[in-house]
Each structure stands twice: as C-alpha cells, then as structure tokens.
C-alpha cells in the first residue's frame, strides 16, 4: 500500500514534524486527497487502539477473578498481573506487603483469641469479691499471709493444705494466715463453697471466670485483697496448691536480720526467659499482648514471697502494664515498671521445683518443692513431721 518511504513518513507525520521538511506538503494539487486519506488513517489507528485497550481490560478482570479459562489462554501473551498464592490481587509496595501479611495472619484464630482474654485493665477493681473474709486479718494482724490460688472445685487440695502446711496458726513464734483464692466456676456448687467457708473462714472468691488464661487476674486479685483487706501483715506469699511448703524454714528465713521489710520479693528467680510463640503451647503469648522476645527477670509462680507493702504498689502500677496470661512474668513486668528489682533468697537452694523422690533430710532443708498430688503432700508431710532427726549425718 505504501512505499517504504511513505510508511516511514506517515509514522513521522504522527509526531507532526514532517510538514516543514516535506516539500510535497506545500503543493496545492494533491492537498484534498491527502487530508482525507490522513483522516481515515488516523481514525483507523484510533479504533485499533481502542479495541486493544478494551481487550486488555477484559483480560485483566477475568484473570484476577480466576475465571474465564478460554480468555486466559487467549490473553496469555499479555503482560497481565496474575494473582499468585495468598498475595493480594493488586499491586502492593514491598514496604507495605509485610503489614498486609500480618493482617492476614492476625485473622487466624489462636487459643487465646478464640476466648479473648479480658484485659483486666489491671485490674482487680473490675471484679468484686463474692467472699472476702475481710475480718480475718483485722482482728490479729499476721506476720505472714499465705495466698493459695486454687480452682473452686478442688476441695481435696484445700483440705490437704489445711491438714499440712496451712494447719498451724503460729509458726516459729509468728502468726500465720492461710487463705484460698478462687474465681467463679460454672459448675461449682455455691452452697457447698459457702458451707466450706463457714467452717474454715479461709475462702476468698472474686467474680471473674476461674480459668488458666485468667491466672493473671487471680494474682492481681490476691494483691488487691492483701493491699485493701490485710495491709498490716508484714509478709505474704503466693503459693500454688500443688506445693510442699516447709513453713518453718520460710518463717526462719523471713526472721533473718538482713531481710528487707520493704520492696522485697524473692523466690526462684528466672532471667532471660524467652516468650513462647508456638500457638499450641500452654504458655503461648501473642505478640500483641507482649511484643518483646524475652521476659524481665521474674519469680516462678509456684511460690514467691514478698513484703506486704508491694501489693498496693503492684495493683497501682498494673494500670499501666498491659496484662498477658503468664502471671509470674507479669509480676516481673510490674516490678520492672516500678523501678524495683527482685532479691535473691538467702539460700538459693531452698526454692526448688520438681522433686524426683522424697528425701526426709532434703525436705527438711528446703522451702518449696513441686508435688504431684494432694495425697503426696499429706504423705510427705506426715513423714517430715515425725519426731526424730531429719538427717542421718546430724543424728
Ligand atoms: C476471664 O474472666 C472474665 C471475667 O469473668 C471472662 O469474661 C473471660 O472470659 C475470662 N477469660 C478466659 C480466657 O477465661
């Protein structure tokens, strides 16, 4: 249709710089023919471009919806963005991609989110006492209060403690008080608990749901009770119900001259403990709750001892420490936030965790040991309390 020269000229004409250089342009003879030809040519090019645009749009839409198999093959030569895997079907700047992926991940349910943990905004004040035994502390202020978190239904554990290390109200000449701290349990018998409390006057119950993930609430309820119902006590201990507690050794330790009366918190201290991010773990903590990879140094929750000025401070500071479900690590966070530090016990070997076997001599030297059952506690305690020397060497 065109000569090679014409073709290149037409193309140049589209950029509009040929006119001056082309002498033919000025000839009036062919002017009419030329301009109508140019009009049709430009019209044709425009229509072609429009069709191409339309085709491209149709292809793109169909592909991103993942349908239109026939169109897909037809369009395969086009530089169309095909959605791949979980990537969003639109362009994402690499800087924002991470955030989007995070958002996708966050929509997956995990154990803690399926049952969302109630941020207690610290806060024991969000709950109220169902049973509080407010008078037990006021009559005769104890030297040491043992606060034992326990499930409402676990009467066996309470009875074992009442028969063993919670039995004596005076130890080494010091007044002691042992109390059990409960939340609400859907299945528990309210009347039975009230009867149990009438008999022993040792139950403290708050109206939060008593679950493993709510242990931080329980710990802060313990602190609240100590601060508001028992401020005159000198020391307190949070001690789990599955523990062997050598109460004599504990009181002897607290009576030592060097033991501080304020800002004192001791037990089995753990530093550089990594936060568990595995969702299947019992101790899983999501990053939204606690972003740091390590916990601050904290006292293991099985049994820690503190001067009784601390509970009020802990309750106060907990308003500004975001709660998470690891109660002892949370106490570590609160202590850190208060600008305080933990104190090593005078004898580190007295705070023990798991025991492999009962040894009368060894159990007479420690303060804590973790046990397997309430029966074991009664069994070991009975033996430990038998008259006669504990250790062969000294006897
Ligand atoms: C914690 O206790 C609150 C108050 O009773 C309750 O609403 C929430 O479901 C409990 N959380 C868990 C994880 O049990």
TrEMBL record:
<keyword id="KW-0812">Transmembrane</keyword>
<feature type="transmembrane region" description="Helical">
    <location>
        <begin position="39"/>
        <end position="58"/>
    </location>
</feature>
<keyword id="KW-0808">Transferase</keyword>
<keyword id="KW-0443">Lipid metabolism</keyword>
<keyword id="KW-0325">Glycoprotein</keyword>
<keyword id="KW-1133">Transmembrane helix</keyword>
<dbReference type="Pfam" id="PF01762">
    <property type="entry name" value="Galactosyl_T"/>
</dbReference>
<keyword id="KW-0735">Signal-anchor</keyword>
<comment type="pathway">
    <text>Protein modification; protein glycosylation.</text>
</comment>
<keyword id="KW-0328">Glycosyltransferase</keyword>
<dbReference type="GO" id="GO:0008499">
    <property type="term" value="F:N-acetyl-beta-D-glucosaminide beta-(1,3)-galactosyltransferase activity"/>
</dbReference>
<dbReference type="GO" id="GO:0000139">
    <property type="term" value="C:Golgi membrane"/>
</dbReference>
<keyword id="KW-0333">Golgi apparatus</keyword>
<keyword id="KW-0472">Membrane</keyword>
<comment type="similarity">
    <text>Belongs to the glycosyltransferase 31 family.</text>
</comment>
<dbReference type="GO" id="GO:0006629">
    <property type="term" value="P:lipid metabolic process"/>
</dbReference>
<dbReference type="GO" id="GO:0006493">
    <property type="term" value="P:protein O-linked glycosylation"/>
</dbReference>
<protein>
    <recommendedName>
        <fullName>Hexosyltransferase</fullName>
        <ecNumber>2.4.1.-</ecNumber>
    </recommendedName>
</protein>
<dbReference type="InterPro" id="IPR002659">
    <property type="entry name" value="Glyco_trans_31"/>
</dbReference>
């Amino acid at each position: 249709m065109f000569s090679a020269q014409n073709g290149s000229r037409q193309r140049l004409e589209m950029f509009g710089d040929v006119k001056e250089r082309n002498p033919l342009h000025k000839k009036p003879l062919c002017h009419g023919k030329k301009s109508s030809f140019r009009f049709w040519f430009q019209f044709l090019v425009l229509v072609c471009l429009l069709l191409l645009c339309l085709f491209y749009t149709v292809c793109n839409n169909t592909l991103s919806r993942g349908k239109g198999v026939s169109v897909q093959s037809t369009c395969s030569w086009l530089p169309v963005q095909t959605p791949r895997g979980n990537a969003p079907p639109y362009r994402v700047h690499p800087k924002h991609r991470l955030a989007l992926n995070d958002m996708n991940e966050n929509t997956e349910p995990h154990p803690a989110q399926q049952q969302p943990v109630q941020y207690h905004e610290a806060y024991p004040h969000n709950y109220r006492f169902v049973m509080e035994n407010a008078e037990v502390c006021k009559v005769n202020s104890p030297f040491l209060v043992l606060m034992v978190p326990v499930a409402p239904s676990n009467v066996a554990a309470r009875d074992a403690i009442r028969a063993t290390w919670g039995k004596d109200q005076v130890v080494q000449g010091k007044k002691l008080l042992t109390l059990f701290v409960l939340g609400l349990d859907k299945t528990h018998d309210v009347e039975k608990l009230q009867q149990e409390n009438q008999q022993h006057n040792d139950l403290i119950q708050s109206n939060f749901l008593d679950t493993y993930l709510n242990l931080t609430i329980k710990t802060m309820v313990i602190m609240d009770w100590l601060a508001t119902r028992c401020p005159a006590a000198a020391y307190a201990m949070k001690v789990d119900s599955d523990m062997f507690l050598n109460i004599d050794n504990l009181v002897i330790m607290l009576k030592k001259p060097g033991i501080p009366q304020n800002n004192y918190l001791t037990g089995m201290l753990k530093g550089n403990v990594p936060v568990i991010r595995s969702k299947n773990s019992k101790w899983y903590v999501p990053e939204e709750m606690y972003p740091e990879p390590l916990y601050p140094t904290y006292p293991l929750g099985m049994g820690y001892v503190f001067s009784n000025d601390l509970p009020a401070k802990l309750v106060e500071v907990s308003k500004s420490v975001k709660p998470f479900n690891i109660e002892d690590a949370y106490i570590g966070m609160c202590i850190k936030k208060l600008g305080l530090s933990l104190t090593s016990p005078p004898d580190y070997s007295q705070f023990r965790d798991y025991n492999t076997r009962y040894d009368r001599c060894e159990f007479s030297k420690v303060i804590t040991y973790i046990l397997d059952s309430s029966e074991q506690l009664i069994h070991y305690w009975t033996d430990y309390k038998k008259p006669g020397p504990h250790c062969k060497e000294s006897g």
